[in-house]
Amino acid sequence: MAISRPSSRDRHGQTTPHVASSPALDDLNTILMQGSMPASFQRSRAIFASDDSSWRPRSFYAHRRQIQRALPVAAAAFCTLLLLILFRLGLFSSDQPPPLIVDPTPPHDDGSSRSTFYLWETASSFKPVTLDPKGKSAKDLCATFPRHILDTIQPVLKLGHADLGKPALDAQMKSVSACLDNVLVFSDLDDELPSGHFAHDVLSDLPASYRDHVDFGNYTYMRQLRESGALDVDKEATAKIRGWNLDKYKFLPMIERAWSARPNHPWYVFYETDTYIFWDNMFRLLDNFDPDAPLYMGSPSPGREVADTKHQVWFANGGPGFVLSREAVRRLLKRKVGADGDFLDAPASHRWRDLLEHDCCGDSVLGWALYKAGVTLSGLWPLFNPHSLHGVP
């Protein structure tokens, strides 16, 4: 036990108590006063004395302190993540609406599970839907026709001068086309029809270079007969006209003329004198499609093959009629524009002159031109078909 020494006075007369002294306290004073540790005070064993204990480097204790400091941060992050998971499960529980799908799958991309036929439920726009035609005039029957739909559909009838006076044209204007106030009629010669409609010559829109075609000579000859007054009067001279050979030249210019006269209609329906259209079915069909998609509908026929491939391009047979959406027409008629606003390429009806010279059919050339414009055929058979009503297979 340490014994206290008596107090002593310093030079100022103050009493200074003596602290209990021992060898250990003397060593401590040496450390405090000199900043060094005497050999007698240094450790000679490990901190945790045991038979297998060994010295641990300072880095071990530094790393342990870092881990101890990081533990609260890791625990806080884990708790935050757990709370977020619980919050989400609680927010979208079974009694809550599902989250909004920002970018849904396009309606037309139904995958392999899509039905091979359309499952639409449609309603007629005719009021009444059925009407006994017995004893009714065309005016009476047309009273049920939904004329407001014609704001979205542009009918285009294609014929030739040779069709005038034929039963097919007369029947067409008294049935399919009877209620169409906005129908456009295009032909190979300007003519006034018995129905009061006017047929516009669309071949006059073609450049003079077309007159070099052998088939196009029929057009030049027919106009000469008209100017001389011999057309339809001189039966022998008129019979020499091969009007069918001119038909292929009408397809592209009639589409250009229809767009020029009635632009931006959602749908353009093209048909001929011997085409019968069930307008109720047509209206219901088109009501289920987007006119701003590049759509080309009709009865499929095999056309040209793509060079160096076995891919065959299909086109719509012109006889049963075909339909173009406004986006399809835009793509077909689109022209490149220069920096000064001038067109750098020819109109669509001028671009395919060489192909028309060697191809038999204008509907085939049209299908190829549409294909080149990025529009492929939707072959909706038998909605569009080349058979008579009682001959559909």
Walk me through what this model shows.
There is one protein chain. By secondary structure, the protein is α/β, with parallel strands linked by helices. The protein has a domain at 149-205 and 243-391: Spore Coat Polysaccharide Biosynthesis Protein SpsA, Chain A, CATH 3.90.550.50. It is built from 13 helices and twelve strands. The protein has helices at 23-34, 58-91, 138-142, 167-174, 217-228, 235-238, 244-247, 251-261, 279-286, 326-333, 348-351, 353-358, 362-372; strands at 8-9, 15-16, 153-158, 184-187, 191-192, 198-201, 267-272, 296-298, 300-305, 312-316, 322-325, 377-379. The chain has an eight-stranded mixed β-sheet with strand order 5-6-4-3-7-11-8-12. The longest helix has 34 residues, at 58-91. The radius of gyration is 47 Å and the shape is elongated. GO terms for molecular function: glycoprotein-N-acetylgalactosamine 3-beta-galactosyltransferase activity; nucleotide binding. InterPro entries: C1GALT1/C1GALT1_chp1, Fringe-like_glycosylTrfase. This is N-acetylgalactosaminide beta-1,3-galactosyltransferase.
